[in-house]
Fold Putative membrane protein.
Amino acid sequence: MKIDWAALGSVFGVSLVVTVGLVGLFTLGIVGLTKKESARGGSAVLAATGAYACFAACAAAVAYGIHLIVV
């Protein structure tokens, strides 16, 4: 049995980058919702829109991952 270390390293690297990216995106969504509470007027709408966009991108990434596993 021979292990392809280059392929294993590339899978590890990609999964690490995607995981850190998703956690960062979700964190930005939470920060945006927190800023919405203290903001007023147009900036509150902008913060809420950005937060919901971050959450939608996270949901899309999770749905794509599930699609890759199932299909």
The chain has one domain: 5-70.
